[in-house]
């Protein structure tokens, strides 16, 4: 009898343990797929077609309807989330802005939002970290005065080669002119004088992000969340990410070693605190790891560099493209802007942060372009790390993404006057002259338009973007006349892409040397 009980136990216990394990696994899977219940209206297309392809093309119109119907009345709404089809995104009105920007990162997290929507952990893409945010906010912004001259030299070297000699009107694709220029300007800041013009480095970076974009879409759409970790062994684009990471490390290694020698005083460059040092992202990262007593690893610096490139080049290029298209579309403003450029250059004898700041009309034009044609419908993106309840009782379940409208705020006549639907190049210049001259510039933070976000997590690189775009536009406006091709009556229509409305990257501009 005892033997029978022992046999029964040996048979039942493993089966019971397996059943418990399966039950626990199913509970975890249920949590992954359980859609959070959002106590707010859900907007969708009412004719039955709610395909991802339709949202990719028409989310802007849905957001406009939600803004008029709910946001302007202080009410939240939800809609399809292209980055996580199992969870709707919550679009919150500006009355929640102060609470969002003051919430702890352990509750509402910008970093978690970015890392989750890109599924960076699963595919080996670069992660946003406190270290890279600190680098931009402190090291980069503190060094901007020293960077203007090197950036000016990059423009002087590259612009004539990117814009072929133009004795007569010559067509150029504006985006594919600006993208390599911005890419090399950012490289001068991030990887320094050795690599900024390296075709091999730029080739690796472009390959990295092409593979990253393809991998992010493919893995998100085809792999269940609990199997995404296998994509590094199965998906060709994820494999390509890891391959380009390794090649990027090889390219960066000599520069990292040079910065280490500089920091420790073991090379020919001056040691820390003993004279001028390289002002670039690799040097700042080496210093950061050493200050924290962390071993400096090339893979870590490659990933940090990759995130900084991803966070800057595309968005700055699109913003510059939008401003350039608006300049050609409002050619009546160009003569006065050129006059301002000539006057400021003569007064200051060159370009510095101070002289670039004196370009107030150009700054006003750029800000109006940003207000009127902001390519992001939403900013203030956060992921609810835990269940979060706002002061008025609105509950956001953990795992939910939240955003605040930006593009539509900028066009709201209740906020910007009855002429909000008109492009006014001097709108922000007048506001600076009539009020506080330190406000209303391109990089300013305002609650009535949010292209840079707001609060502690506002874009820390906005000051660099401001100066970089000014340098680019100064070079183009002073060296070339610009117009649209025959038959193009105005700024080409923007291209919708989920919750973005991108300036037309195929737009042609005619250039003629001055």
TrEMBL record:
Pfam family, one: p450
Positions of heme binding: 459
GO molecular function: heme binding; iron ion binding; monooxygenase activity; oxidoreductase activity, acting on paired donors, with incorporation or reduction of molecular oxygen
Organism: Apiospora kogelbergensis
Protein name as catalogued: Cytochrome p450 protein
Obligatory cofactor(s): heme
Keyword Nuclease: no
UniProt-listed PANTHER family: CYTOCHROME P450, P450, PUTATIVE (EUROFUNG)-RELATED
């Amino acid at each position: 009898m005892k033997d029978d009980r022992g046999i029964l136990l040996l048979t039942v216990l493993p089966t019971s343990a397996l059943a418990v394990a399966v039950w626990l696994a199913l509970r975890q899977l249920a949590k992954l797929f359980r859609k959070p219940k959002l106590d707010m209206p859900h907007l969708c297309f009412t004719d039955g077609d709610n395909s991802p392809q339709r949202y990719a093309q028409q989310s802007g119109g849905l957001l406009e309807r939600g803004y008029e119907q709910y946001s302007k009345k202080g009410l939240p709404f939800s809609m399809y989330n292209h980055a996580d089809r199992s969870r709707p995104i919550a679009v919150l009105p500006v009355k929640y802005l102060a609470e969002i920007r003051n919430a702890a990162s352990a509750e509402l997290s910008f970093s978690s939002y970015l890392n989750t929507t890109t599924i960076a952990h699963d595919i080996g893409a670069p992660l946003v970290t406190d270290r890279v945010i600190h680098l931009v906010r402190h090291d980069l912004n503190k060094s901007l005065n020293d960077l203007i001259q090197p950036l000016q030299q990059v423009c002087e070297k590259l612009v004539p080669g990117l814009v072929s000699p133009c004795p007569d009107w010559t067509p150029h694709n504006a985006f594919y002119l600006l993208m390599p220029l911005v890419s090399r300007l950012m490289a001068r800041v991030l990887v320094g004088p050795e690599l900024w013009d390296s075709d091999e480095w730029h080739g690796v970076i472009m390959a990295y992000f092409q593979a990253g974009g393809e991998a992010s879409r493919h893995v998100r759409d085809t792999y269940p969340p609990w199997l995404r970790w296998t994509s590094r062994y199965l998906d060709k684009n994820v494999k390509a990410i890891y391959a380009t990471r390794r090649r990027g490390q090889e390219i960066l290694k000599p520069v990292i070693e040079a910065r280490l020698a500089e920091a420790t005083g073991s090379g020919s460059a001056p040691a820390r605190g003993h004279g001028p040092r390289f002002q670039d992202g690799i040097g700042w990262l080496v210093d950061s790891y050493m200050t924290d007593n962390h071993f400096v690893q090339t893979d870590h610096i490659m990933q940090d560099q990759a995130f900084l490139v991803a966070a800057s080049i595309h968005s700055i290029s699109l913003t510059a493209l939008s401003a350039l298209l608006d300049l050609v579309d409002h050619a009546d403003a160009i003569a006065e802007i050129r006059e301002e450029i000539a006057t400021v250059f003569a007064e200051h004898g060159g370009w510095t942060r101070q002289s670039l700041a004196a370009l107030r009309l150009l700054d006003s034009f750029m800000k109006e372009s940003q207000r009127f044609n902001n390519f992001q419908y939403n900013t203030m993106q956060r992921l609810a790390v835990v269940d979060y309840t706002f002061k008025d009782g609105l509950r956001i379940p953990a795992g939910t993404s939240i955003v605040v409208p930006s593009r539509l705020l900028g066009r709201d006549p209740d906020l910007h006057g009855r002429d909000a639907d008109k492009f006014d190049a001097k709108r922000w210049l007048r506001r600076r002259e009539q009020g506080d001259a330190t406000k209303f510039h391109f990089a300013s933070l305002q609650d009535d338009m949010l292209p840079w976000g707001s609060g502690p997590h506002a874009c820390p690189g906005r000051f660099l973007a401001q100066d970089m775009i000014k340098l680019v536009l100064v070079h183009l406006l002073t060296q070339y006349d610009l117009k649209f091709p025959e038959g193009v009556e105005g700024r080409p229509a923007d291209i919708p892409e989920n919750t973005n409305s991108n300036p037309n990257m195929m737009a042609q501009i005619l250039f003629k040397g001055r």
